[in-house]
Amino acid sequence: MTEVPEHLLQRAAEARARLTGAPAPESADGDAAPAAAVPAAVTPDPTPAVPEEPKAPEPVAPYVEAGLRRKTMPVWIIPVLVFMPFWAIYYVGYLENPPVTGGFAFEGGEAYGVQCAGCHGGAGGGGTGRQLSGGEVIATFPATDEGVAQMVYWVASGTAGAVDGVYGDPDRPGGQREAGSFGVMGGFGGGLSTEELAAVVYHERSSFGELDAETIEHELHLLEELVHVVDEAGESFDGASLDNVRLWVDAASAKLAAETEMAAE
Ligand code: HEC
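# heme C complex -> structure
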């Protein structure tokens, strides 16, 4: 029979002890079985489990740390993002309209589409309101200071503002317009700003009046100047008399003539 080495016997005894729960016998050479070898279930630790200290975050590489520290979106990008669509709209408008005349003409077209096209048609062909296209608007309100003043006054005050029941050129082919002969148009002096009203007059005259380019340019400057005159006087087209409007147009026309003279020198 082969001798089983002492240390193997000892290990077997220890294993048996672990399974049965009996204490392991001391080894012959006095080697105590390590306490850790006894499972916790067999001899439970009487002290309650101490909650673990929260672990310090694991150290990360410096470049990862820099990435985590950095905000994903810098604060200054917010106003930039908010502003961008407006810039895009402005830029498209800028491309479509040369800067000098663009604002006024664009504004007039906008106002016409919103306030007038419903009755006068998108292309000025008429409907509930009279036809303006084909030069009709200029037949009623000729390309003179008086014609412009009469038209501004008409758009501001409408049918109800007509002086002596008539409006426009007394020598109009087919006779002077009689107010109310085609229906009733309300006044826009209260609904449109000074600039919008002048701009919509410009839009109708330049788009439907069949005027030559030089006259259109002159009327643009005249109507822009008219806005300055009215603004500087602290006045408005709302409730203004035809004579008021005539005076303002005359003042604008005189300023324009003086500027043209100065530019020519
Ligand atoms: C509710 C419909 C309506 C709207 C909106 C309207 N109009 Fe009129 N417009 C008329 C009618 C109706 C007449 C004819 C009035 C009359 O006979 O007294 C007229 C006449 C005119 C005339 C005179 C044309 C001519 O040869 O006799 C002009 C210019 C004019 N409108 C410009 C405008 C402008 C500018 C706007 C927008 C700011 C506008 N209208 C909005 C109904 C309208």
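# post-check
The chain has a mean pLDDT of 87.
The two ends are 137 Å apart (CA to CA).
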